[in-house]
Amino acid sequence: MSQTKKIPMRKCVGCQEMKSKKEMMRILHTPEDEIVIDTTGRKNGRGAYLCFSKECFEKAVKSKGLERSLKVKVSPEVYDSLKKEIEQIETK
């Protein structure tokens, strides 16, 4: 009997769709109280997942899905910096 490898699935906090972990980016609330994009997916802290699209990010901001998932109040400045980083990722 051959074992099929399990694909880790995560839910986007913007569009609420389940996708594989590799298809999404991880937004991280670090123990140092920073909110950053975790490119490796292995850093310590509480994570929330988003699709690689501006639309999903905007839905997460509007519905406060990011704040709920990270269990912390997110300031507008942090949202602006995350938006710039996501735009850079989208253009690649």
Outline the fold blueprint.
Layout: E1 9-11, E2 18-20, E3 24-29, E4 35-38, E5 46-51, H1 54-62, H2 65-70, H3 76-91
Antiparallel strand pairs: 1-2, 3-4, 3-5
Keywords for this entry:
single chain, 92 residues, alpha+beta
Oligomer: single chain
Question: Major sheet: size, sense and barrel closure?
Answer: 3 strands, antiparallel
Percentage of residues in strands: 15-25%
Radius of gyration: 14 Å
Q: Show unreliable segments.
A: none
Order of helices and strands: EEEEEHHH
Structural class: alpha+beta
Number of strands: 5
Q: Span between N and C termini?
A: 41 Å
Dominant shape: globular
* Mean pLDDT over the residues: 91
Q: Percent helix among the residues?
A: 25-40%
**Spatial strand arrangement across the major sheet:** 4-3-5
Tally of DSSP helical segments:
3
What would you say this structure looks like, in words?
The protein is an alpha+beta fold. The chain contains three helices and five strands, in the order E-E-E-E-E-H-H-H. The chain has helices at residues 54-62, 65-70, 76-91; strands at 9-11, 18-20, 24-29, 35-38, 46-51. It has a three-stranded antiparallel β-sheet. It has a two-stranded antiparallel sheet with strand order 1-2. Strand 3 and strand 4 form a beta hairpin. It is globular, with a radius of gyration of 14 Å.
